[in-house]
Amino acid sequence: MRVTPGLMRRRLVMLLFGLFAAIGALIGRLAYVQGWQATWLSNLAKQSWDRTVPLSGIRGSILASDGQPLTYTASAPTLVAVPSQIKDKAGTAAKLAPILHMSVDSVLRQISQRELMVYIRPGGRQMSEEQANTVRKLELPGIYLTEDGKRAYPYGSLAAQVLGITGYDNVGLTGLEKQYNSVLSGKKGGITFYAKANGELIPGEGQSVVEPTDGDDIKTTLNLQIQQFVEREIEQAVAAYHPDSVTAIVENPKTGAILAMANYPTFNPADWRSADPSTYNRNLAIWQTFEPGSTFKIVTLAAALQENKVNLNDRFYDPGYYEVAGHRIRCWKAGGHGSESFLNVVENSCNPGFIALGERLGKEALFSYIRAFGFGQKTGIDLPGEGNGILFKLSQVGPLELATTAFGQGVSVTPIQQVMAVGAVANGGKLMKPYLVSEIIDPDTGRVVSVTKPTVVRQVISPQVAAEVRAALESVVANGSGTRAYRDGYRIAGKTGTAQVAKNGRYEPGHYIVSFIGMAPANDPALVCYVAIDNPHPEHGIVFGGVIAAPIVGNILDDGLRELGVPPQTQGLKKKYRYPEAPPVTVPNFVGLTMKEAQNLALQNSANLRVQVLGQGDVIIAQAPAGGAQVEPGSIIRLYRGQKAPSGNQVAAFALGG
């Protein structure tokens, strides 16, 4: 086919139009990319270049109720590597590894990463000054020392499980550190700059800084002195009885504030990595569940009184056992207590008497009160890891389950549940929600950001019944199984507990948790204290809550009330002393006597008291304890000599100082 000149021209024109269209499209695309998409593409490029070094604010402090820091953030040396600047990576790793107590392979792997900057973990974070100085002397290229926040604990292991621990990046892992992590952490910032893949800065590109925000402080309800009293008593109990574990809680029953909480075994939170994980991961006071034993009888007693199922003057006969569904449940006392009032049932912690109260109530009523007192559910305390406890389902409760529940066997509860339940008896019948943090505070301005207000969960029993239960529990301490908790003038009310420990569905022979829960003063309690000791091994071989745990609670309540400034009272029940117990001795007043007169008076009281004379001079100017105080026989009275008797205020101050 012959192509004519006209056809050729038409084809050439079409080709030119197509070429012009392609060039136009290319120019349009170029204009679109360089114009409309320029900013977007530039941002995408910068995102591939930008590097951000995170900046953390100072983590907030955790304070005691008086504002003293229990933990705060201190500065510590931290090692940072810039891999692109390290030419001899193997040699650098070999030099650093022994200083950081790490393997050479671990250090080498970290400094070989394709990253702009690497924290060498764990040994390079929060190092000692000695380690930092050793690294400085090496002058290794690409290795830098910076400062990092490290938690400091001025009171060592005090309240360790309550405070909790933080990880490498100062993130709370347990305890209050975890519960209030977002409050304590503040907000992170960072330095953003632009660099090539090899770490070199891109010329002409600046950097931006977002300043971090420091975390807030949290003020706890922990009373520093009472916490120390509790931990002192735990240490002494561990030394005396070598138990598997010990738990103690002190509460203000009027508010639900926790004034002290401690456990054994414990650990040093500054060196938590060397501790057993079960020690720092579990706060036994809120996590551990076990059969409460006789301390649970307080719930049965309160329910029976509230439902008018018993009068404490009513009589009950205990032959030493109680027949339930073909089972004979024995009293702890061989042969039983015989004829006794129901007040005696409480004083004697008589299981058959409490079985009778459980039967009078019936399972629906008893279990409704058990749940109303907060058992079988979390208390809502502001700590992670709280347990629920275990109760029988009502459909599974037969006569035998009802009987054992009435005296605290077959149910499983946590220590914090028991404290809050007895706190309801102490405050007039109101179940409170426990809490540990009272305020959140801005550390820069001192402004209180938020305040925790006491929360009433529900009214469980009437104030009148609560007062009647407290009176019965005061009688337990003065006349019954809790006499070793008695402290003259402080009207301690409480209940003993001795529970056999179940394992794999069977009770372990010889394995007991002994406990005591007390409150004082009985007429208007300011404190509730609970102590539980798991598997004690006393030298005398007697394993009862009244023998082992009761005196510990007595000491804590005595010291705690003095710390709070609660004065002793002359009202209240007087203790009935039984052999081999001896009544307290009244301390004579030695102040103002000459040395010869003091020696004669000391000789007259030498059968009951020991006297220690300190200082120089012819006159006794002070003494401790003061004259008129009640002390145990054999106690030491310290007398301070001087030239003349000082004024009354001086005497008091001198005696307290001694």
Please supply descriptive tags for the structure shown above.
658 residues; alpha+beta; 5-stranded antiparallel β-sheet; extended
Structure classification: alpha+beta
Count every helix, treating DSSP H or I runs of 4 or more residues as helices.
Answer: 22
Distance between the termini: 130 Å
Beta strand %: 15-25%
Q: Averaging pLDDT over every residue, what do you get?
A: 87
Largest sheet data: 7 strands, mixed
Query: What's the shape?
Result: extended
In total, the number of strands is: 26
Please give the share of residues in helix.
Answer: 25-40%
The radius of gyration computed from the alpha-carbon positions, rounded to a whole number of angstroms, is 36 Å
**Which regions have little confidence, pLDDT < 50, spanning 5+ residues?**
645-658
Summarize the structure.
The protein is an alpha+beta fold and about 650 residues long. Helices cover about 35% and strands about 25% of the residues. Mean pLDDT is about 85; it is low at about 645-658.
Walk me through the structure.
This protein has 658 residues and is α+β, with helices and mostly antiparallel strands. It is built from 22 helices and 26 strands. The strands form eight sheets. Strands 2, 3, 4, 5, 8, 16 and 17 form a seven-stranded mixed beta sheet that branches. Strand 12 and strand 13 (327-330) form a beta hairpin. Helix 3 (89-100) packs across helix 4 (104-111). The longest helix has 32 residues, at 5-36. The N and C termini lie far apart (130 Å).
